[in-house]
Amino acid sequence: MKAFTYERPGTPAEAAAAVARRPGAKFIAGGTNLLDLMKLQIETPTHLVDVNGLGLDRIEPTPEGGLRIGALVRNTDLAADARVRRDYAVLARALLAGASGQLRNQATTAGNLLQRTRCPYFYDTAQPCNKRQPGSGCSAIDGVSRTLAVIGTSDACIATHPGDMAVAMRVLDATVETVDAEGSQRTIPIADFHRLPGDTPHIETALKPGELITAVTLPKPPGGAQVYRKVRDRASYAYALVSVAVVVQPDGTGRVALGAVAHKPWRLEAAEAELPRGARAVTERLLAGAKPTHENAYKLKLAERTLGAALTQARA
Amino acid sequence: MPNFGEIELSRRDVVAGAAACAAATGVPSSARAGTGPEGPVMAKVSLTVNGERRELELDTRTSLLDAAREHLRLTGSKKGCDHGQCGACTMIVDGRRINSCLTLAVMHQDSEVVTIEGLGDPRGLHPMQAAFIKHDGYQCGYCTPGQICSGVAVLAEIKAGIPSHVSADLNARPEATPAEIRERMSGNLCRCGAYSNIVEAMTEIAGRQA
C-alpha cells in the first residue's frame, strides 16, 4: 500500500473541499472496497478524508412520504430498519443478498453505490484494463468474461456494476444528494448516477471531483409486491451472475431492473409495458441490442428465467 | 518452551516477532516522487481494546488487525486472506463484528474493540469457546478466533431482530435455526470443513440464551 496522509474534517462541505483541493485525495467511509483496492495498488490515494464522523448516519422520513437515508448508514442498519423492511422490501432483500454480515456492518449506503467492478482484469495489475489504466486496452472482451456485462458495453470495457443495493435503488427511483467544495448541493436521479463505459470506463459516476454524497432519498413507497432475486455460483456471499428487482402491482403493471448485466443497474421503463405479456416479452425488450461474449451469452436466458421466477414469486 | 540461552521464547513470541520483522521490511524506502508522502505517515490513535485503554502511534496504513497483532501483541485474531474474504480477522468493534483487515486503525479513535482474547481465556472460557470445544467446532484452529467472534455477534444480531437473506418473513423475529446460522456465518471460511460442528456449538448457545 502506498503511504497517505489522513484527516477527519468537521462538516460535509469541509470534506468535499479537502478532497477537491488535493489531487490524489479520496473519501473513506466503510473502506471495505477502497482498502482492498489500496492493498493491491489499484487505488493509490495520497490523502484520505475520513467522512465517518460527519453525522450522515440517520434515516429520516421526508415531507413527501419517503425516506432520506444518510450516506453513512451501514448496510445492516438500512436492511434492518422497520420502515425499509415494511415499505421497501426489495431494498432490504437486495442488501441482505449482498456480501457477508461483517461487510454489511461496515459498508455504507454511499460507498455501496461507489463500489468498483469485480472484473478479474481490473484486479489483475499485470493485464491491460481501460478502467484501471485508461488507454491500455480491455483484456476481458476476448478473455474470461463469464461474469461480465452483456448490454451497454463498449469496445473499451465490458465490466459490470457488481452491487445488489443499487439495483433496488434503481427500481425504487431513488435520488442521490451531494454537496461540493463550495457547499452547493444537488440531486442526481439514480438513473443518471452510474454511467455506461463508453470510451471513458474509468469515469463511473456523475460525481465531480470532490463531490460528496450526503444522502440517498427514496420517494414514497411504491406498494405492490416487491422481490429481489439473485442467482450466483454459491448460496451465500457471492456476486450475482444475474439479479432481478421487481415491484408488481395488483393490476399487473410494475417495474423491473436487472443487476450484473451492465455497467449500471439496467432498467428500461418502456420494457415494463410488456409485463402483462410475461418475462420473455419484458427481457426481449430490456435486453434488445445485447452484445454478449461467447462466455456470457447464458445471461440472456438466465435473466429471462430469473425474471420469470421473480414474477411468479411476486404474484403468489 | 524452548530455551535459547538466557532468552526464553514461547511460540507466540516467535510468531509475533516474525510478523513484526516482515512488516518492517515491507515499508517502501520511498514513495513515488511528487505524487504522495515521501515515506510512512504516522498518526496517533487511542482506543479501548478488551476493556483496556491503548494509545498508539501508527503508520496510517496500519489495519486494525495489524495494530492488534503487531503493536498490541494480540495475535489471537488471524490474518487469513487480508482481503475480507475469509473472516479469520473478525473482531467485535463498537458491538458489531467487522473484518479488522479492511479497516484502518486510525479510523477507530475511541472505538471499543473486543478480540478473541477479550471474550475469554483458558481460566474463564466464554460459553461460545466452551461450546466450540465440546462440539469439536474446529480442526486446525486457524479460523476459530474469527468464527467464535462472529458466532457471538451473530446470536446478538438474531436477538436484535436483524433479518437475513434466508429469513422467510422480513417483518418477523428471526430465530437461530441452522439455516439462519449457516447464512449469517457465510463470511467465515473454514478449510477444515468444521461447519456442521460450528452450527451445533452455536445452536447450543442460542438455546441456552432463549
Automatic annotation (TrEMBL), chain A:
InterPro entries: CO_DH_flav_C, CO_DH_flav_C_dom_sf, Diverse_Substr_Oxidored, FAD-bd_PCMH, FAD-bd_PCMH-like_sf, FAD-bd_PCMH_sub1, FAD-bd_PCMH_sub2, Mopterin_DH_FAD-bd. Coiled coil: none annotated. PROSITE patterns: FAD_PCMH. Residues 1-223 form the FAD-binding PCMH-type domain. It comes from the Bacteria. Keywords: FAD, Flavoprotein. It holds the Pfam family FAD_binding_5. PANTHER family: ALDEHYDE OXIDOREDUCTASE FAD-BINDING SUBUNIT PAOB (PTHR42659:SF5), XANTHINE DEHYDROGENASE SUBUNIT C-RELATED (PTHR42659). This is Aldehyde oxidoreductase FAD-binding subunit PaoB.
TrEMBL record, chain B:
This is Aldehyde oxidoreductase iron-sulfur-binding subunit PaoA. The keyword Iron applies. Keywords: Iron, Metal-binding, Oxidoreductase. Residues 43-119 form the 2Fe-2S ferredoxin-type domain. CDD domains: fer2. It holds the Pfam family Fer2_2. SUPFAM superfamilies: 2Fe-2S ferredoxin-like, CO dehydrogenase ISP C-domain like. InterPro entries: 2Fe-2S-bd (IPR002888), 2Fe-2S-bd_dom_sf (IPR036884), 2Fe-2S_ferredoxin-like_sf (IPR036010), 2Fe-2S_ferredoxin-type (IPR001041), 2Fe2S_fd_BS (IPR006058), Aldehyde_Oxdr_Iron-Sulfur (IPR052914), Beta-grasp_dom_sf (IPR012675), TAT_signal (IPR006311).
